Amino acid sequence: MKFVLNSNEHKLHYVKSDAAAPTLYFSQLPKYAASLKEQNKGLIFIGSNFVLGLIGNAESQEIVSTVEALCKEQSSKPVKTNTKKDVKFDFKIKGQKPVVTKGVTQFNITGAGFKVEDIGNTLLKLGIVEME
Description:
Elements: E1 12-16, H1 23-28, H2 33-39, E2 42-46, E3 50-55, H3 60-74, E4 80-89, E5 99-110, H4 116-125, E6 129-130
Parallel strand pairs: 1-2, 1-6
Antiparallel strand pairs: 2-3, 3-5, 4-5
Helix pairs in contact: 3-4
């Protein structure tokens, strides 16, 4: 299965999420790492207590640090950030080894009380558009 962002105009997109926790994104997003890297694209999910993204190009460091700083300003709990440059996904199929994609960035920022609109506006300023 290949994940394709239809817009050729923009490489990076974000989605506002009403999920209470990023569990679904943690479990499913890594399987698309190779496809996003191949397309040089990325996807970021924003919730009131998390920001989770997978970026398949070199623009990731500025994005992660900018969003992390904003989250630290807004959060009512300590903010935790985790960034990986190699993404591993296990399809859990007997006999099939996990797939490791190098050269992509998977990150998550957790806390509480994030202002989703503010984070979205910050991402827009960085050239990341909202996915419809």
